[in-house]
Amino acid sequence: MTLESVLSLALPAALAESIVLVLVLLGALLCLSAAVGLLHFRDVPSRLHAGTKPQVLGVVLIGLAIAVSQRTLGGILLGILLVTPVILLQFATAPLSAHMVGRQAYRNGTIQAHTLVADEFAESKQTPPAAG
User: CA-based Rg of the chain, rounded to a whole angstrom?
Assistant: First the structure.
């Protein structure tokens, strides 16, 4: 078997469409649950958790659905190659933005202090002596 014949191997149309349907449906449900969690939860840490975890996994599943929709092995590999930067960007930006929002909410005092298990930033609230 040559490389060209291996890359041209294709999934049956019904199987590929079923896989794509399931992946898109699961991804959409995860993204929807992230949106509902942002509206439903009251405190900032819960909202950040709901907004980042399921949303990123939903984007990964939708990206895989895009790759599988190509049906041939070469098309699937090319699809994975094309959606990888989007997925990596989601993995990089979602935790960073959640960290920044959480830190600002802590500094503003909108996080309920009694719900914190460990307060690692307690001394950061104090103004340094030379700060004026």
Answer: 22
Tokens 């590999």 belong to 77
| 70-116 pLDDT tens trace | 988 888 899 999 999 999 999 999 888 888 888 888 878 777 777 77
Where helices occur in the chain by DSSP H, the ranges are 3-7, 13-40, 44-68, 73-108
Q: How far is CA 70 from CA 18, 22, 24, 40, 59, in A?
A: 13, 15, 14, 37, 18
Say how many residues make up the chain: 132
Nearest to residue 51, comparing CAs of 24, 85, 59? 59
Contact (Cβ atoms closer than 8 angstroms) between residue 102 and residue 48: yes
Six token digits for residue 78: 């090319």
Amino acid residing at 79: G
The token pair at 112 is 């309920």
- Residues contacting 74, CB < 8 A, separation 6+: 7, 8
Q: How far apart are alpha carbons 125 and 117 in whole angstroms?
A: 17
Cut 0.85: pTM above it: no
